Amino acid sequence: MTFLTIVIRGLLRRRMRTALTLVGISIGIAAVVALVGISEGFEKSWAKGLNARGTDIVVSNMGGAMVPKPFRMDVRDRITALPEVAAADMLMVELMSVENANMIMVSAREWGGFTWENLKLISGRLPHDAKEPAAVLGQTAAEVLNKKVGDSLQIEATELTVVGIVNGGALVENGSIILALPILQEIMASEDKINVVDVRARAGMTEAELEALCAKINQLVPEVRAVSVAQHLSHSQGYQMIRAMSWGTSLLAVLVGVLGVMNTMLMTVFERKQEISVLLAIGWKRNRIVRMILWESALLGFAGGIGGVILGVVGTHLMQAAPAIKGLLEPDLGALLLLQAVAIAVTVGVLSGLYPAWRSARLNPAAALNG
Asked: Pick from 2, 103, 150, 367: most CB atoms within 10 A?
């Protein structure tokens, strides 16, 4: 009988208990995969949307919320005066409940600005001008709202006509309702307010030069904050809070798995006192007994990690397809995250097995005679 055979046999001795422990670990790891994958995916999707619009720098006041706080429109004019700025577009971005969609992105853009250029028409047309009571839907938003060209769309108390369906080149664009800026300002009763300025820098600027331009804008307009596209969400207190909560909730679920594995391994040591004592009596060294228990707990963690990754990936895709949040999520379930999740599960298994392994190594071989 090989060492590995003994390890596997120990896990299969109480199959139901082992299975329940695996379920506990799997749920914790699934939480890591789903929550962290969603938060990181949201950041990458948002950056992809900004890049699709040709934005180099985002000027906003994110504060502690997911949606920026409003500020005066003349901020754009002060920014445009800088020689390094090629163009600057005013936007008002809101997360709203619209008809049957509990939460959907509404993106109102300065008419004639570069933020309209990436929208590729699938059907219909763009609004004729900034005053037309019309909306353009990203293709995912059209599916969520079950709308086609010519249908009416009610936002708050205002009824608009869907004049076009577009592909914006990123999930955040395709999941949005897109309007001319004055239309949403009137709906929100904020005629002189915006909450984002997208800045396109002069062609050929390096990353260092973009950072210098951000600093210049921050000095010129201290009531808002300019950051490059790559750093936009990472500077948001609201997003940082969501990311911290994602990891916190995940680690809490993992802690439950730790306790489950530790309980299982302690019960295993208790039930196998005679077997362990016999192994000590026939010449096994105590450090080999420790390795056996640690291998069992590590293997338990590894199996739970694989199960958790599968459960997390499947669960995330099911959430992504749910009507309530369709078009808002594009999880980042890359190989690195999945490997990290399995590594966390194995680490959980090893740490949970330390105390049971120590207990097993302290057993007296003479105890075998009392069985």
From this structure: 367
